Amino acid sequence: MVTAKSCTDFAAPFGAQYRLDNLMSAVLTIGSPTLAGYSLFITLLNSRWINRRFDSVDHPTSRAVLSILSSLQQVPLRLHPDRVRLPSLVVASENDSWWKCLAEFVDYTHTWSIASATSIAWVVVAYILTVANSLSNVYANVQSNGEATGSMWLWLIPIVVGWLQLSPKCDFNRLQAAYDRADRHSMHTKADIRAGMFPASSRRALAITAKDDDVISPDELLTPPVFNYSRSLRWASTADAIFMVFKLESEKAYSRLPVCRSDWVESGTGIESNTAKDIDDENQHGSFETVPVQYAQQNRLQSLVSSHWAPGVFTRMAIASCTSLGLQWGTVGAAFVVGWFTPTTEMGCRAMGYLLYGTISTLVWMMLLMSSILAHHSASDPHRVSLSARVALVFSHVLRWTGKFFALLNSFW
To answer: What are phi and psi of 407, to 5 degrees?
Structure first.
């Protein structure tokens, strides 16, 4: 019981726009440790995946973009429906300041503190003392000393340590403020000013917020990291699309192909170089209108639109699933074994309770994970023309509601 009490405050980072969503975050974490573990591990694997993808990209803003993508897994990251906007945001050097400003503004951490480290250390020490005490009195006291309950709650420690180490950006208001500040600090191109275009914030190709009608699952709008299960597929698809644009631009720079000029301008250093940092800005100048046209003329714009299912996404989902199941049943299984051998031995009320808790937790994870897969499949047909998209959408909603209901029961029974 000490374990649960000491770690619960750190187990589910809050930061949602509404308090009720923060409550649901805590309910899902306690009701389904499997889901909490899955959201943590899929976030870590996605960060590792996109880092490896960008290793092959040589662009002045690639590090900033990588920081943004890794940090914004707690928001409904999405591209503008008009995909020709993305090349303009990436290619034109006038937009480099926007990427760098946003990366700087979202680079804040909420990680280890004296309070969190002390609480976790106290949990570990208390559990060790509980087990040691039960072994020293094994013949004198045949009743349970609480080691089974303590074992069942040990899953909190890796979850808490994982989120503290990852430091998720889950404060909705702070993220929105960072996005708005980046727009105010970014430079506007002269072509945009002459054309009288809308402010930058209304025409950016990349958005971190969405309306209820823009998402299939409302869980995508909730920033607490336990809801990352619902965003991981969409995030991976968006991140891969951005990577493909940067990869293409890196290849163009290596081939010495300017954005909107007929000839290549050498850098001021006088040294011929294909490194992105040494490329003259004149080779990257281009307005909102000319950049997409230039890409379309090369018949390359279609290649910028990535697959609806990002590469390796199911492999990462399988690894995260196995790891989270191991975490859940490693702790619940230990509690079950202790309860099984505690007089009265075999299947008593305690052992049955531990087994039921782990089973419902796993069932909730399965329902919500399948709900996210069906929702992403349905999103591939925005107008729901096909029967499969409509059926997938209905089953996605049913599974999500049912899973949350079981999580609520499992956290309070």
So the answer is: -65, -40
Residue for token digits 């072994």? 135
Tokens of 109: 């951490």
DSSP at 1: -
For the chain, the residue count is: 413
Classify burial at 205, counting beta carbons within 10 Å of its beta carbon; exposed 0-12, middle 13-18, buried 19 or more: buried
Helix, strand or coil, per DSSP, at residue 78: strand
Which pLDDT value is given to residue 288?
Answer: 47
Range in 39-43, 240-244, 363-367 the model is least confident about: 240-244
HSE value, Cβ hemisphere, 13 Å, CA-based, for 166: 29
Q: What's the gap between Cα 164 and its chain centre?
A: 15
Query: How open is the CA angle 406-41-355, to the nearest 5 degrees?
Result: 40
The backbone region for 15, taken as left when phi is positive above 0, alpha when psi lies in -120 to 50, beta otherwise, is left
Q: Of the spans 12-21, 60-69, 299-308, 344-353, which averages the highest pLDDT?
A: 60-69
Measured CA to CA, the distance from residue 306 to residue 296 in angstroms comes to 16
DSSP 206: E
Q: What is the pLDDT of residue 350?
A: 75
Phi, psi dihedral angles at 78 (to 5 degrees):
-155, 160
Q: Which of 158, 184, 135 is nearest to 40 (CA)?
A: 158
Given a cut of 60, whether residue 198 has pLDDT beyond it is no
The residue whose two tokens read 């989270």 is: 324
* Residue of higher predicted confidence among 14 and 400: 400
Nearest to 403 by CA among 395, 388, 215: 395
- What the block records as the tokens of 29 is 């974490």
What does the alpha-carbon distance between residue 154 and residue 132 come to, in Å, rounded to a whole number?
Answer: 16
Asked whether 11 and 156 are in contact (CB, 8 A), the reply is yes
